[in-house]
Every structure is written in structure tokens, then in C-alpha cells.
Design a protein that fits this description.
The complex is a heterotetramer, with 2 copies of chain A (262 residues) and 2 copies of chain B (302 residues). Chain A is an alpha/beta fold and 262 residues long. Chain A is built from 6 helices and 16 strands. In chain B, the strands form 5 sheets. In chain B, strands 3-16-15-10 form a 4-stranded parallel beta sheet. A 4-stranded parallel beta sheet of chain B has the order 4-7-8-9, with helices on one face. In chain B, strands 5-6-14-11 form a 4-stranded antiparallel beta sheet, with no helix packed on it. Classes of the chains: A alpha/beta (262), B alpha/beta (302). The structure holds flavin-adenine dinucleotide (2 copies), flavin mononucleotide (FMN) (2 copies) and FE2/S2 (inorganic) cluster (2 copies).
Chain lengths: 262, 302, 302, 262
């Protein structure tokens, strides 16, 4: 883990407020694993003090990619970053996805930009899997190519039905699970909106499926010092303890998570 | 000639006047991969209470112009948790350890102080008196001179360690509280804690933080902190540790000119923990430029 | 349907909830070339005292992260100067005029209020109680409940105009002062004034401002102001005029959600006086989006 | 007076921290007179709220030029502004230099970037004059060409003697004044550091020379509202009053100014 001044190599808008940012970060790239994230200082963000966390989407040699959606003040300003700009990146941070065994079947369940770390993961696993990806509309369905390239099966769902099945991504997944789930030792890897993670996690626990969720919390330090990002989890003895999503996570096994009332 | 950056606060020898603000640097290991902890004059750890404490619900932080509002709620592993998990680690460094403590009753404070005093490797206790006084209906100990006095004197009685009451900025006249601390036997004072604040989510139409209100920190509060440090330093003889929006050599040096002996970096660590190194270098350059041989010469004659 | 932005504060009819903060918009003519004054819900002019007053030496302002620290020192042309030079100009507009007043003694306040009450074209008096109380050795009237009460009641006795005490943020519990104001007969309250602050010139090694200390304003103080407005609004039935770091529709709406009836734009006028127009438009959009028909529906249920 | 979004047309570094910025500002350019200034919002200046005042150096059609020196945080960031950037400009602000009569002889006394408004003025006066310009070193001697172009005489002084006479600019001026001053009804126009203005102003008053000084004070609003920038002056009746440099100035006649102890 390090703080690196990185140079923007490419910055591509991929539609519907999503962009892909590629930068040269030899130190971070050298050690990054799927599921880890970087803490990025967005330049020229008026009055801002804090960094912003983004999952590592791809590592190619000395280069790192992130896939981000402009949702707020910071990510909107991030869109103005130009090739050649220097950024300060802290990373790689957090833990990574546990690698499944060769006899297990990886199932990726992604919502929106949650597909980014799963794409990185899919490339590194010893076996091909199945991606279930969802979003509000067809523009929110990203990275399909990445999964095709590693021969994953792909099922899509959109809330407006503009591509794939109409509804939440959990729908095609459940259908698939009924038919194939019992036969193939699935391991779920999921990243996306809270409500999706919870639905996936609770289903996995109820059905005794190995399941890893990548959580998303507002972060201060990104490094375990400020305790802004805690999540209640059951520890090995079953006691409820608070873990730091930035440091002890962002990946947690579904059965460890204590879901709370909203 | 290389200037001498070392200082002495209540018998604690610091190799330079820079420490970190409690709650912004964890307990030591968190930043140890990025920052050489030996570069710090001292480390001040996150607030410790008698028993482990869970803190508030999330969201616990909100970013605002020039800083952040936090309501972490003092989550911590308690005295025993801290001493088992973190003290052995900290002893590997050449680094004075200041432990920040808090409580909900006077007895809590005293008990926490007493328990910590039995452990090796603690150099001073910073007493955070900005916590809600449960008995007094939640009003902060630190905003009522009598309650401040009670806490400080209770802690004073149970420990031989240097004690450093940490003053709340949420008072009309900080001088009163600085003097109370000195009179009750404090070895130094530190200030300021965060300023009470609130952020509202205009889309959800409710407070952004689960705790409704929180404390403002970061560069936004620096000019307020400078004034309070200047006032406090002018009425006490014990040393002052300054904090509140220090982000670079300039903002740190303002505190030293205002009369602080040491300065803590807080929120800026989240942005860039390497600021510690830059600031130490910056103070050195400033001293060379102005022909200061020791840190205490920096204080302005005003 | 077009939402209704108009509000009523103590009988003052404002066409929208936006006014300007005293001291940041002069007396009217200064910005009149750039801003159509009729777009304001009301104008609040720079603080007026019984006699003309010169204010402090220069430098009077310092820029800081997220705002500025000012020590103008309340320079003003006095009651007569104001009424001769500026009131006739202001009467040309469809614009309620709130005159901010201050004094160094209780008698000063009352006398200023009495003199202004004899003039046509003044809709309310905002009573700035954050001034140093000369008799009490310079401690601000606004930080001692009894002194605040004394000033407000003295002003109340001499005028039939609506009075709006302007509270100081430099207190531990703003609720106390809000209630005092209401009890003494205030028709509304406004808050917050600037937060005491200080900037040091590290090259010259002396305070940057001639007055040594000043008051912090601008976005840096917004979360502090929101909290105080929320607390004050929760304990009084009279309307609250909020100010402190409002810079755009979002920061203004936070105040309305916190319980303010009107909001004053201050320091932001120096950056961009056209913010007034943008904010009025922004509130309207927000109301349309959230199906609010009138401004009082914005207040959050919390 | 207006607030205009202007577009940067040229931005040239002219050495020793001085730069010339040219932007298209039709409204402001349409009405600007010599001595007036603009109040500029420096973009991407972290945490900054206030504008910065700069004298108008040149007006060419719809274009305005300023000549500025990077002295602090804002002016350093201003150097990074690129051609095509949009800036917010308030102006023109303040009063202008009174125009001398045809039988008077304009004398310009400038220090550093103070030469900028005087260059604008020299072009518009009915008669040619004499420029006395000073600075720390040869790199601080600017705009000589501008004055040559309007056939002004030029005398230079530098503190380090690297060009012109060694010493302060008041030196060559005094020498000149002894020889020619009494013969030609001089009118002094001066802009530069405070100490220079005071020396010039006091000399002018002592010698009964018409003299206009452009003052420099820290500004908030730039428009007369905040009272940050006041200067004590004698009014018509000889009473001391406070005038706003931004609104009632920046140009004041030397005899009106009440100089105060430092
Ligand atoms: C481990 C992790 C990985 C992430 N990976 C990605 C990714 O690959 N692509 C992507 O587009 N986004 C990702 N996010 C979310 C991303 O961090 C937020 O969208 C971003 O911080 C929003 O910043 P903003 O300034 O635009 O929003 P604003 O709402 O203006 O930000 C205000 C504050 O809230 C925080 N914040 C707002 N939304 C979120 C959020 N959803 N999560 C965490 N903090 C938030 C900001 O960091 C900032 O401190 C990830 C978040 C986490 C915790
Ligand atoms: C009427 C007028 C005309 C001017 N014309 C020019 C010009 O043509 N070219 C030029 O280079 N400069 C000019 N100046 C000075 C210029 O405004 C300052 O150099 C500039 O504001 C410095 O900003 P900064 O952020 O770099 O400095 P900082 O010191 O970082 O600024 C901090 C604050 O102090 C203020 N400040 C600092 N120095 C000055 C100063 N000398 N005068 C006024 N405010 C200051 C800034 O505006 C800002 O508010 C003029 C000033 C005035 C009042
Ligand atoms: C996330 C966070 C947690 C904090 N926790 C504590 C704490 O446990 N005890 C304490 O005395 N102060 C705590 N503080 C206050 C800081 O120590 C410091 O007084 C304050 O942040 C002002 O300094 P800064 O502006 O440099 O951050 C905390 C501040 C932040 C931002
Ligand atoms: C330059 C300046 C002058 C001020 N003068 C007065 C004044 O005369 N009377 C008063 O009650 N408040 C005065 N104030 C305080 C403002 O009215 C307001 O309360 C404060 O600036 C917070 O609002 P803001 O952050 O939006 O500026 C002044 C503020 C500034 C910046
Ligand atoms: S973000 Fe600070 S502990 Fe996780
Ligand atoms: S700068 Fe505001 S009055 Fe001159």
C-alpha cells in the first residue's frame, strides 16, 4: 500500500454518466488483487478534503483502470480530468475476494458499477463462471465484453426491461439457481447497491451458498483509522463486532454480516 | 546550523512539535505502512474509555466545504483492548504515546485514567472533556467550568502521568477553561476539539448523519482554533498543544506563533498522511529562514 | 403550479425568503447596478449606530480557506447619515428594509432604535448583540443571557417596529439565547453572526488584521450555522432568519429544512452578487420538485 | 459595470513572475477608462471565496489585458489559466485618472506592475509625457514599448542598478523636476508600492504639483459595500473622512490623502 502520484493515460466516457479512467501507477498495480480499491484525491474539487474510494477495475502492466459513475460533486469533477493530469492515489486498499476452488462454480452478481471489481476477479479465477448483471436500464449494463472474453455465461436484467429480463438481477439468478444451483457448488461474488447485496446475501445464507459481498460505505481515511465505515459482523465466536469496511473489508462473507433495520 | 526542533511538554520529550489529533490516526498500526511513525514528535491515539464502546450508527461522516462533520461516537476497544492490542505495537517505536481518554461520568474518567496508569509505555493522558455529561442531561463537561474542574481534578488524583485536558471550542471564553485546567493541576492543555455542526440531506429531507449532529474539523475551523489557542496560551503557563485545521507548514506555524508548543495534525491525515513529513521539514525551513535555534523562539511577541 | 415563495416575518411581507446579511451588501446603492434589488425578499443594511463610527484600522479583512475573517469594526454613517443618504434611495424599491443596529451601551441601542423609529421606510430593526459591552469590560452582550435580555428589552420599549435580535454563535447553548430573545418580546431572531477568529502573518510574525482578531464568515461556517439554526428554531415560536455560509440553493435549503423562515446571503455576495437570483430560482425548483406550495412546507419533520 | 463570463484569448509569461492575460470581455471593454480595475475570480483556487483586483492594462476592441505579478496564492494559480478558459470578471470598477489639460505635462511615476494603468492612461492623454519607472531589478521594468509607442520620454531606475539609474524611481524624477519641473506644469500620475506613492505624494504636495495616486488596498467586494478598503482623506471642507478605495478611488489626488503612521 502506498500513496502514488499517477499520470492519467486515458479517460473515456462510456455513456450514461459512466467513465473509465486509466492511469499509470506502477507501485499500486504491482500488488493489486481483485476486490481491492484505491482512494483517489479528485483534483480541483472546491473546498473538498476527503478522498473517494473506487474499486480496481483492471490492471494491465503498470496501468490501473477504474470504472466510475458520476453521482455527486466529486465524481462530476472527476469527469473533467484530462490525459496527462497527475492524480494522487492511495492503494491498493482493503482485502480481496477469496479465490474459489477448481471444483466450485463462480457466480458473479453485479449492479451498476459493481461489475468493475467482479470483472477483475473473473479474469483471475481458475474456472469460468456465470455473470448476472443488472441495472436500471440498458446503459447501466457494463463490462459485458470483459466477461465474454473469459468465457463467462451472462444473464442480464434491467428494471425497465430495455435489455435482458425485466426486473432485478436477483430474478434471473434465482431462476438459474433453481435449475443448476444444486448441481454445481456455486460461490457467489457480489457487488452493487446495498439492497441488492442484502437480497443476495440473505438468499445465499438461507440456501447455504458460499457468498462474498463487497460493501460500500462512506469513507474518511480508507485505511482503518477513522472508524467512519464500520459494519456489524459476527466474529468466529458468533459475537457481534464492528469491522472496518476499508481495512477488514470491503469483502465480507454473507453469513458474517449483521443486517440492520433501515 | 540545523535548528533544534525538539520540545518538552510536561516532561514528554518530543523530537519535533508535531503530533496527530486523537481519532484521526487510529492507534498506530493503521498508518504505519505509509508513515514512519518515528517521524512524529508523539502519537495521540483515538479516545479510549473504560469499557469497549460501539459509537454511533452510520453515516458517521459528511464532507463539507473545508472539512468534514463527524459523529463517530467514540467507538473504541476499551482500556484492556487498547493495552493488549496496540500498546505492544507502539512500544516498538521511539515515540511518546499520548492516550486520549473520555467518559460519561466523572468516575468513568478517573477509572480510565487509573487503569491506564498501570500500563507501561504510556507517556501522557489527554482528557477529552467535550463529551456529554450524562448526569447533567447531556451537556458537555467541557462547556461548564465546574464540570471541567471536577473531571480534571478527579483524573489528577488517580494518576502520576502528565495530564492534558482537551478543551471544547463550544464556549464563549476559552480563557476561563484554560485557567481551570491549569488550576486543577493539568500539565498541558490541548485545543480545539471539533465545533458542533450539522449537515442536512436536502433530497432525503433529514439530517445526513445518523447522530443528527456532529463535529466540524478541517481547514474550515483553523482561524477559530488560532484565536482560541492564542487566547488560551496568553493566560496559562503550562504548554499548549494546538489543533484544528492545521494542514501544512503555514497553518502549523500560525499555531506556534500564537503560542502553542506543539501542534496536532488531524483531518488532513485522511487526505494525505505524508503531510506529517512535509510539515516537519517546513518548520525546519522556517526556523532556518528566521534564524530560530529552538521552537520556543517562534512564538510571536505580541 | 408555480409555488408561492412569499413569506411573512413579523408582519414584514417578503416576496421570497432571501435577504442579505448585514455588512455584506452596503446600504442598497452599492450593488444596485448589478442586482435588481426588487428581486430580494428584503434588504438588511450594514449596522448603524447612534453616531457615525470610523471602525478599525486596515487591514480589515483576510481571506482564509472557505471564507474570510473581517474586523471592519462597524464603520457607519450613524442614524442621521443613513436616513439622509440611503433611506430615500431605498424607498424607490418594492423592498422591505431591515436596519441592523448596534451600540456600545444599552442606552446606545435604545437610542438608535428610537431615532430610527421616527423615520419612514424602515420595516424592522435587526439588533446586533454581538458587540463588545463596554461597561462589562468588552465581553459581548450576546454571550451573556442577562445582557442580551437587557439590550432586547430596552429596544423593545422604544420602538413599535418589529425587532430581530441577531444572536452570536460564540455561546455554548444557542437555545438559551433564542428563548431570551423571544421572552423579551422579539418578533424574530436571526443567526449566526461571524465566529471569532484570528489569522497570523507568518512572515511578519504578527496578527494579520490591525484589530488582531475578527469574525469568520463564508462557507466554512455553514455546518455550524445549520446546527444553531436548527436548535434555535426548535425552541422558539417566532420566525428565524438564518445566515452563515449560505452560498447556493443547496446551502440555503438546508437552513429552510432546519427551520428557518428566511435566509440571508452574506460573504457570497462579494464573490457573486448574482447568487441572489440563482438561489431564488433554486428554491422555486426545489419546491416544484418536492411538491411544496409554500415555503413553510419545506421545514423537515424531525 | 457588470459581471461578465470572459474567455481567455492569450496568456503570456513575460518573465520574473509577470504575465499578461488577454481576454474577450465586450461589455467591460466597452466602457473601461484608464485607472479603473476589474475584480477577477481566479478559477480553481482552493478554498478561496474572494475575487482579486487588477488594473486594466489595455483595451483593444472587445479585449481587455491585465498585467499581473504572481505574488501570492491566487496570482500563482492564475498563471495556470489556459487559453480558452472562462473567467468571471466584474468591472470596470472604481474611478479613472482625471485627464490633464493640453497645456499641462503628464509625468508618470510607476513601480512594478503599477505601470499597467499608466500605460493605458498614456495612450489616451492629449499630450505626450515622461515616464519614470522603477523596480528592484531590470526584470521589473515593464511596458517600456507601450510608452515609446506614444512618444513618451522614459527614465528608469532599479534598486540593483541592473538597468537605468541605481536607486528608487523618485531619484531620476527629482533630478528631472529640478531641471524642468517649474517650466512645464507637470501633472503626476503615479501607481506602485505604498512607500513610493507616499514619497511621490508628499513631494507633490510640498511642491504644489497636481498629483494623482492610484491606491492599493486589500479588497472584499470591490464595489463599495464591505468597507474593507477605506482610506482617510480630507474632504472639500478639510474634514477627515473615510473613502472607499474600490468605489471612491482607486485614484485620489495626493493632497487629499491623510498619510498615517505605519
Ligand atoms: C470500496 C468502495 C468501492 C467503490 N467502487 C466504486 C467504483 O468502482 N465505481 C464507482 O463509480 N463508485 C465506486 N464507489 C462509490 C464511490 O466511492 C462514490 O460514488 C463516490 O465517493 C461519490 O463521490 P461524489 O463526490 O461524487 O459524491 P458526493 O455525494 O458529492 O460525495 C460526498 C461524500 O460522500 C461520499 N460518498 C457518496 N456516495 C458514496 C458511495 N456510494 N460510497 C462511498 N462514499 C460515498 C463521498 O466519498 C464523499 O465523501 C465505491 C465505494 C466504496 C466504498
Ligand atoms: C485597485 C488595484 C489594482 C491592482 N492592479 C494590479 C495589477 O494591475 N497587477 C497586479 O499584479 N496586481 C494588481 N493589484 C494587486 C493584486 O490585487 C494582488 O497582487 C493580488 O490580489 C494578490 O493576490 P494573491 O492571491 O496572489 O495574494 P495573497 O496574498 O495570497 O492574497 C490573499 C488576499 O490578500 C489580497 N491581496 C494580497 N496582496 C494584495 C495587494 N497588493 N492588493 C490588494 N489585495 C491584495 C488578495 O486579493 C487576497 O484577498 C491591484 C490591487 C488593487 C487594489
Ligand atoms: C473522525 C474524527 C474522530 C475524532 N475522534 C476524536 C476522539 O476520539 N477524541 C478526541 O478528543 N477528539 C477526536 N476528534 C477531534 C480531533 O482530535 C481534533 O480535535 C479535531 O478534528 C480538530 O482538528 P483537525 O481540524 O486538524 O481535524 C476526532 C476528529 C475526527 C475528524
Ligand atoms: C465584511 C462583513 C461585515 C459585516 N458587518 C456586519 C454588521 O455590520 N452587522 C452585523 O450584524 N453583522 C455583520 N456581518 C456579519 C454578517 O451579517 C453575517 O452574520 C456573517 O457574515 C455570516 O454570514 P455569511 O457567512 O453568509 O457571510 C458582517 C460580515 C462581513 C463579512
Ligand atoms: S474509512 Fe476510516 S476506518 Fe474506514
Ligand atoms: S472592497 Fe468592499 S468597500 Fe471596497
Amino acid at each position: 500500500m502506498d500513496i502514488e502520484k499517477v499520470i492519467v493515460e486515458e479517460h473515456e466516457y462510456v455513456g450514461n454518466d459512466y467513465s473509465v479512467l486509466k492511469f499509470k501507477a506502477p507501485i499500486v498495480a504491482g500488488v493489486a488483487s481483485p476486490g481491492q480499491f484505491i482512494h483517489l484525491l479528485i483534483p480541483r474539487l472546491e473546498g473538498s478534503i476527503l478522498r473517494r474510494p473506487f474499486s480496481i477495475y483492471k490492471v494491465e502492466g503498470e496501468f490501473i483502470y477504474i470504472l466510475y459513475k458520476a453521482v455527486g460533486r466529486g465524481t462530476k469533477v472527476l469527469m473533467e480530468v484530462r490525459v496527462g493530469d497527475k492524480l494522487s492515489v492511495m492503494g491498493p486498499l482493503g482485502n480481496d475476494f477469496p479465490v474459489c476452488n477448481e471444483d466450485e462454480f463462480p457466480v458473479f452478481i453485479a449492479g451498476g458499477f459493481g461489475v468493475a471489481p467482479l470483472s477483475f476477479l473473473a479474469k483471475t479465477l481458475p474456472v469460468k463462471g456465470h455473470l448476472f448483471v443488472g441495472g436500471a436500464s440498458n446503459c447501466d449494463i457494463l463490462c459485458i465484453d470483459d466477461f465474454e472474453a473469459v468465457d463467462c455465461k451472462i444473464s442480464i436484467a434491467t428494471v425497465d426491461g430495455s435489455v435482458g429480463e425485466q426486473g432485478f438481477v436477483t430474478k434471473p439468478f434465482m431462476t438459474w439457481y433453481k435449475e443448476f444451483g444444486k448441481k454445481c457448488k456455486p460461490v457467489i461474488y457480489s457487488c452493487g447497491p446495498d439492497a441488492m447485496l442484502r437480497a443476495v446475501g440473505e438468499f445465499a445464507v438461507a440456501n447455504d451458498i458460499k457468498c462474498y459481498l463487497s460493501l460500500d460505505k462512506h469513507m474518511g481515511c480508507g485505511i482503518g483509522a477513522c472508524l467512519a465505515c464500520v459494519q456489524k459482523v459476527y466474529d468466529a465466536e458468533g459475537t457481534i463486532v464492528q469491522k472496518r469496511v476499508c481495512k477488514d473489508g470491503p469483502i465480507f462473507s454473507a453469513e458474517s454480516i449483521v443486517w440492520e433495520e433501515e | 546550523m540545523k535548528p533544534d526542533l525538539s520540545i518538552d511538554i510536561a516532561g514528554i520529550k518530543m523530537k519535533n512539535p508535531i503530533t496527530v489529533a486523537s481519532g484521526t490516526f487510529g492507534y498506530g498500526p493503521e498508518y504505519a505502512d505509509l508513515v514512519d511513525l518515528n517521524e512524529l514528535g508523539a502519537i495521540t491515539v483515538k479516545g479510549i474509555s473504560r469499557e469497549p464502546w460501539d459509537g454511533n450508527s452510520l453515516p458517521r461522516i459528511a464532507e463539507v466545504f473545508g472539512g468534514m462533520v463527524n459523529a463517530i461516537g467514540l467507538q473504541n476497544p476499551g482500556v484492556e483492548g487498547f493495552c493488549e492490542k496496540y500498546l505492544p505495537f507502539l512500544r516498538n517505536y521511539d515515540l511518546p504515546v499520548i492516550v486520549n481518554i473520555w467518559g460519561k461520568t466523572v468516575v468513568d474518567y478517573a477509572e480510565t485514567a487509573r487503569m491506564l496508569s498501570d500500563h507501561e509505555g504510556i507517556d501522557a493522558l489527554e482528557v477529552n472533556i467535550s463529551c456529554p455529561n450524562i448526569k447533567e442531561g447531556g451537556i458537555s463537561f467541557g462547556t461548564v467550568p465546574e464540570s471541567s474542574a471536577e473531571v480534571i481534578s478527579a483524573v489528577r488524583k488517580v494518576t502520576k502521568l502528565p495530564i492534558i485536558p482537551k478543551l471544547s471550542p463550544n464556549v464563549s471564553d476559552i480563557k476561563v477553561f484554560a485557567k481551570v485546567a491549569e488550576e486543577e493541576g493539568a500539565d498541558a492543555i490541548s485545543l480545539i476539539n471539533t465545533i458542533p455542526a450539522m449537515v442536512i440531506d436536502i433530497d432525503k429531507r433529514r439530517p445526513f448523519l445518523a447522530n443528527v449532529t456532529g463535529g466540524l474539523s478541517g481547514p474550515a475551523i483553523h482561524p477559530v482554533a488560532v484565536k482560541m489557542v492564542w487566547e488560551a496560551a496568553s493566560v496559562v503557563d503550562i504548554p499548549v498543544i494546538a489543533m484544528g485545521g492545521a494542514v501544512d507548514a503555514k497553518t502549523v506555524i500560525e499555531f506556534l506563533l500564537a503560542g502553542a508548543t506543539a501542534v496536532a495534525l488531524g483531518t488532513i491525515n485522511f487526505r494525505n498522511p505524508l503531510t506529517i513529513t512535509e510539515v516537519v521539514k517546513g518548520i525546519e525551513n522556517y526556523m532556518v529562514k528566521n534564524d530560530f535555534e529552538s521552537v520556543d523562539q517562534i512564538k510571536m511577541n505580541f
